[in-house]
């Protein structure tokens, strides 16, 4: 299985260090639709508790990567691993099992308009996992408390603001306690102040719940915020503060250009890049 370009290490019982295995990896993945190459020889790995931010212009293949990870599309070439298991050759039954550790936050939230906030958040717990009603209620209350919306249990999606809808979507995605969260343009369409509230939830999930994340976005402001901040506990309070250099390095950016990785590195390296395409995108 491929290793990340920036491999972190952990202590072994003998005191030696060993590389961490990626929770997600794409190895030389290519995909075409109707003769048009969407992705070409894409390789990257996501380490536990880290963030991978995927940037690029519209049509560059960003959201296609998420569909491949979920097994909704299969590559024409290459291999995909989730938690050490190769998924691009799996049947649907095994894919359903693998998806149990994947949470997805869609653009615009994609809530069920006919269900209350509590019913939206508990949907998979009830219909797929078939947990007892008391356990569903407890978990729903817990995750809505995490995103600051415990008092909104009985509201309908139409009664929520845009930012609240996105936070409910995050709560729904985390309800099953996935180890990996995938965000597809989670802050698109939100004003800057509201978007920051969503960014903070991404940071909190990564740092307090040890969730690994792939963030697909064209919102540079939000991408840099998530990459350069961290959540810390201060007694009973949770604060999101600027990250130190080591923590910031755990968030890596991928820039796609016409289906090819044009850049991979941390926030500081991206800001310092001299490639004309990257400079135009950043401006």
Number of strands: 14
The string of secondary-structure elements, in order, is: EEEEEHEEHEHHHHEHEHEEHEEHH
Strand content: 25-35%
Largest sheet: 6 strands, mixed
Spans of at least 5 consecutive residues whose pLDDT stays below 50 are 1-12
Terminal CA distance:
37 Å
* Percentage of residues in helical conformation: 25-40%
Helix vs. strand class: alpha/beta
**Spatial ordering of strands, largest sheet:** 8-9-10-5-13-14
CA radius of gyration is: 19 Å
General shape = globular
Q: Could you tell me the mean pLDDT? A: 89
| SS element count, helices | 11
How would you describe what is shown here?
The protein has 283 residues and is α/β, with parallel strands linked by helices. 34% of the residues lie in helices and 28% in strands. It contains eleven helices and 14 strands. The protein has helices at 62-70, 92-99, 117-121, 123-127, 133-146, 162-174, 192-208, 220-228, 245-248, 267-272, 276-282; strands spanning 9-11, 17-19, 24-33, 36-46, 51-56, 77-82, 85-86, 102-105, 180-184, 212-216, 229-234, 237-242, 251-257, 260-265. The strands form four sheets. The chain has a six-stranded mixed beta sheet, sandwiched between helices. Strands 4-3-6-7 form a four-stranded antiparallel beta sheet, with helices on one face. Strands 1-2 form a two-stranded antiparallel ribbon. A hairpin with a 5-residue loop joins strand 1 and strand 2 (17-19). The longest helix is centred in the last third of the chain and has 17 residues, at 192-208. It starts with 8 loop residues before the first strand and ends with a helix.
């Amino acid at each position: 299985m491929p290793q990340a370009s920036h491999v972190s290490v952990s202590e072994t019982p003998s005191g030696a260090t060993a590389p961490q295995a990626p929770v997600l990896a794409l190895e030389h993945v290519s995909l075409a639709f109707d003769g048009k190459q969407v992705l070409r020889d894409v390789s990257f790995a996501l380490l536990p508790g880290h963030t991978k931010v995927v940037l690029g212009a519209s049509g560059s293949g960003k959201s296609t990567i998420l569909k491949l990870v979920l097994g909704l599309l299969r590559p024409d070439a290459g291999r995909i691993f989730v938690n050490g298991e190769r998924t691009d050759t799996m049947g649907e039954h095994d894919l359903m099992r693998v998806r149990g550790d994947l949470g997805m936050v869609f653009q615009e939230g994609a809530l069920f308009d006919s269900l209350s906030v509590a019913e939206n958040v508990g949907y998979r717990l009830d219909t797929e996992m078939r947990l007892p009603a008391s356990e569903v209620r407890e978990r729903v209350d817990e995750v809505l408390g995490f995103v600051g919306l415990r008092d909104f249990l009985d509201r309908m999606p139409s009664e929520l603001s845009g930012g609240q809808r996105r936070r409910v979507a995050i709560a729904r995605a985390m309800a099953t306690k996935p180890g990996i969260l995938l965000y597809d343009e989670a802050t698109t369409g939100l004003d800057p102040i509201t978007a920051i509230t969503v960014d903070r939830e991404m940071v909190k999930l990564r740092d307090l719940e040890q969730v690994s994340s792939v963030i697909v976005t064209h919102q540079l402001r939000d991408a840099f915020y998530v990459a350069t901040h961290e959540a810390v506990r201060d007694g009973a309070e949770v604060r999101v503060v600027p990250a130190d250099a080591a923590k910031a390095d755990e968030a890596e950016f991928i820039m796609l250009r016409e289906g090819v990785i044009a850049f991979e590195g941390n926030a500081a390296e991206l800001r310092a890049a001299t490639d004309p395409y990257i400079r135009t995108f950043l401006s």
